[in-house]
Amino acid sequence: MYDSLIQMAVIATFALAPTVGLLLARRNLGVLNAAAWLVTYGSAIIAGEHTFIGLALMLELADQPGLHDHLRFHFFMGGVYTFVGAVLLGVVAWTLLRTGHRGGW
Fold first, then answer.
1. Can you give the pLDDT at residue 24?
2. Which run of H or E residues covers position 1?
3. Number of domains the chain contains
4. Rg (alpha carbons) of the chain, rounded to whole number
5. Whether the Cβ atoms of residue 67 and residue 53 lie closer than 8 Å to each other
6. Cα–Cα distance, 11 to 48 (Å, whole number)
7. C-beta separation of 33 from 54 below 8 A
8. Using an 8 Å Cβ cutoff, are 57 and 70 in contact?
9. Per-residue pLDDT tens digits for 38-83
10. Contact 93, 104 (CB under 8 A)
11. Of residues 35, 48, 56, the one with CA closest to residue 81
12. According to the model, what pLDDT value does residue 15 have?
């Protein structure tokens, strides 16, 4: 029991370290740059968490009873975040193109 808690604490520490680093460096980076990096990092963590955990559970533990619903949830949320990311990418591209920035292409 304690091994899994320690493992989760280590993973959480590594996941939160860039967030804390960006918050501490926001004056050197600039507030908007730090915010952009926080959004980018957060979206990668959220989408990756559901996708990678779903794949890991499927590959290692798929024969355990009751796990299929958990797998479905992780894959469903991975798909939801993919859709949300595609919509947001379209909004960003649309905004850039409407303001005349070439980065929208």
1. 92
2. none
3. 1
4. 18
5. no
6. 14
7. no
8. yes
9. 888 887 887 777 777 777 777 776 566 666 777 778 778 888 888 8
10. yes
11. 48
12. 83
